[in-house]
Amino acid sequence: MSRSQDTASPITPCSPKKGEMISSIQLSRPFLTRLQIEYAQSKTIDNIVVYKQRRNQVFSFLMKVCNTLKFPMRTLETAMIYYQRFYLHNSFNTSTYHDVATVCLFVATKNEETIKKLRDIIAVVSQVRNMQLNSEQAENYRRRIIGLEIKLMETIAFDFRIGHVEEYLVKFSKTLSIPKEITYTAWLFSYDTYQLDIALKAPASSIAVALLELACKLEKFHVNINYRELFVNMEAVNETKVDLLDFYISNYNYSFFASIRPELHDTFMDLKIALGNVKQLVEREKRYIEEDAYFDERSYTTGERRFMLGNQRKRLYNEM
């Protein structure tokens, strides 16, 4: 394992001696760069276009389920983050992605303290998907979701730390004296970030600042934002703005925002031109990414596994 990485990777010891149990240590890594995400997906996703289409369908599917069950926005946000993290390390299959989305929502309800019984979630999922399940089929489906739950938690290394964009939108808009109407526009933008991999690259605070800046530009409201005072990273803010503008330029008709403001289709190209070439997140050379043990194939059959948060790596090194 290379210790030159900003965040640590999974550590697997040398081949065990006869009679010893194979063990591994997995550190969480909540944020990756664009090239790291693309490299991970190249190993788990055969057709990235199909994956993105299904991801957009999953967003609509989960939104319907969340609306029916009256879950708050943060539950939907967390479920979409889990869904995308899952396919960084597990093969994407067009026949099971709804099951993965369902287990991501189930785990998200626990993490966000909006808990519902799995049977209740399955009942709504079946209704949204027009599935007719008898009692035996519903029980088998419940068991399948429970089986996927442990796989999801191991994939995210039991790291349940999730920041929420809407909380920062409210906080920052008050700090910057941004009108409620513009904050509402930024809030609408946030729904479309869940259809992208932005949350895999940037923390919620940086995403919130980017959305507020774009909303202010869109509504021609001048605001001065000091990134240091808000403790956000400029490169992460720029990464978010570029990703969202690119999405609106090429896929506006499929966006959530278009359902509210369809007349703004051509406006985002002007915003992208005005943005110009900005400094985005620093990328590592591809050879370093390929050598990074974090992207090695995951084993779910290792005899003993230990999961640690990325900020515990100093403690880990002391134990080695």
Automatic annotation (TrEMBL):
<dbReference type="InterPro" id="IPR043198">
    <property type="entry name" value="Cyclin/Ssn8"/>
</dbReference>
<comment type="similarity">
    <text>Belongs to the cyclin family.</text>
</comment>
<dbReference type="InterPro" id="IPR006671">
    <property type="entry name" value="Cyclin_N"/>
</dbReference>
<dbReference type="GO" id="GO:0016538">
    <property type="term" value="F:cyclin-dependent protein serine/threonine kinase regulator activity"/>
</dbReference>
<feature type="domain" description="Cyclin-like">
    <location>
        <begin position="167"/>
        <end position="253"/>
    </location>
</feature>
<feature type="domain" description="Cyclin-like">
    <location>
        <begin position="60"/>
        <end position="154"/>
    </location>
</feature>
<keyword id="KW-0195">Cyclin</keyword>
<protein>
    <submittedName>
        <fullName>Cyclin-like protein</fullName>
    </submittedName>
</protein>
<dbReference type="Pfam" id="PF00134">
    <property type="entry name" value="Cyclin_N"/>
</dbReference>
<dbReference type="InterPro" id="IPR036915">
    <property type="entry name" value="Cyclin-like_sf"/>
</dbReference>
<dbReference type="InterPro" id="IPR013763">
    <property type="entry name" value="Cyclin-like_dom"/>
</dbReference>
<dbReference type="GO" id="GO:0006357">
    <property type="term" value="P:regulation of transcription by RNA polymerase II"/>
</dbReference>
